[in-house]
Amino acid sequence: MDDKIVKPEPPLGGPPQGSRPHAPVGDGCFLGEEMKPQAPSYKEALARIKNWFRANSLWVMAYGTGCGAIELRPLATARFDMERLGIAMRPTPRQSNVLIVSGYLAVKSLKRVIRSYEQMPSPKWIVALGSCTINGGMYWDSYNTINRLDLYLPVDVYINGCMPRPEALVAGFQELMRRIKKGEADGWRHYMENLDWYKENQKKIITDWDLPEYNW
Amino acid sequence: MKEILKEIEERFGPIWERVQRPKLAQVGIEPAKAVPLLTWLKEHRGYVTLVHLSAVDWIEQGEFQLTWLLGNPETEERLMICSRIDRENPAAETVSGLWPQAVTYEQEINEMFGVSFPGSPRQGVPFILEGWKDIPPMRRDFDTVAFVEKHIPGREGRKHIDTRTYIGEKFGEKGYLHD
User: Fold this and answer.
1) Domain membership flag for residue A23
2) Can you tell me the ipTM of this complex?
3) Which of A6, A91, A106, B169 could form a disulfide with A158 if both were Cys (CB 3.0 to 4.6 A apart)?
4) Considering only alpha carbons, which residue of chain B is nearest residue A146?
5) Is the pLDDT of residue B53 over 70?
6) pLDDT digits over A86-98, tens only?
7) Low-confidence ranges of chain A (pLDDT < 50)
8) Would residue A176 count as lying in a domain?
9) Complete DSSP assignment for B60-85
10) B64 burial class (0-12, 13-18, 19+ CB within 10 angstroms)?
11) Residue B70 pLDDT > 90, yes or no?
12) Is residue B152 part of a domain?
């Protein structure tokens, strides 16, 4: 009963208050075309259609960082079968648009996660799974794991619990789809607009920084 | 196990020994004789498997204890060879020439405890901790909580709510009494 969806809150002392709350995503940056100014109703309708498509085409990168990845196997296979929701696994970051950060993140794997996240094509979302991504969980005093994921990467949906069951994950994906359809899940846009703030935090924790400034 | 312990004592001088189970015994030996003993056990007595290599920090005695756990697949016996080295500038002889997998163990012990194994490849190459600047984290004088509070930002915990007081305030005294 502990498993419930927590909406991400803006980080404490947080990033510059940018565009996180604003809704319409239909500015043509995904289709790659310059859209001429249109009547608002047309633009809004197009944005809704695009968001509906996006919400029903979630491709999860098959990458597990911590013990939470064990919950992805029953979710992906016959028992809970996430393909009935239109969610499937892809093996590389360039073919996927959802990153599940499953559990604790060592500083070493944070570097790889950042690198993978930046290689994903642009409407992309992060589902943070487990208590460790929220406040460190049972590894809060470990010398090598981070305690808050949203300082380094924009999180769209948190699923708490240690571990959350696959049912909670399904509920989290439904919440993510609802937020995408409403145009609220724009963490990727927040990341691009506040890149300096995120990069500063990342460089504080990753002491041997050798990543490019951004992998387009 | 008694025969092999007796033979070790005859060949390598005084040892500390303990038989834990019928097929598991522990041998303590001075560090200079540890690697000759391991070589002899591997070459002549069938202890061909290096199961594990670990370190323990005995900070009160000012020593690190290294333990090589050897396995004999024919008799299914196991021997723990323990050896204590000085905690200041700790160094031990490498066994990576005998068992190639020891390279990884020695790399990890080098990173986590600061024990150096001269001659072993990948010493000083980061294993888990990339860009680590503090003292090795598995040493017991490393203060983990202070390190986390200094370097790893976290979320402020929620306000502690005493269940009994909260229910009492909200529902009155009878809220939690079963009567």
Assistant:
1) no
2) 0.76
3) A6
4) B152
5) yes
6) 899 999 999 999 9
7) 1, 19-33
8) yes
9) TTTEEEEEEEEEETTTTEEEEEEEEE
10) buried
11) yes
12) no
